[in-house]
Amino acid sequence: MSKQKTNEGLFSASKRFTDAFFDGLKSNATNTAIKAAKKNKKVPSELIRKMTDLEKLAKEFQSDLEKYS
Prior knowledge:
The chain has helices at 2-39, 45-68.
């Protein structure tokens, strides 16, 4: 039984690590896209504002999910 708990702990730790890693990649990609859109003069400011609003809402939603789960 102890070995099974150790394996479960190892798998949950691995899952947390990979989730954090890929969340970081997504966040970096999103930030890079927003910065590139801001630099590009052809992208309407309304679209840039919507992109930043969506990113902010996604972060708030993720925070709420973690808070209530």
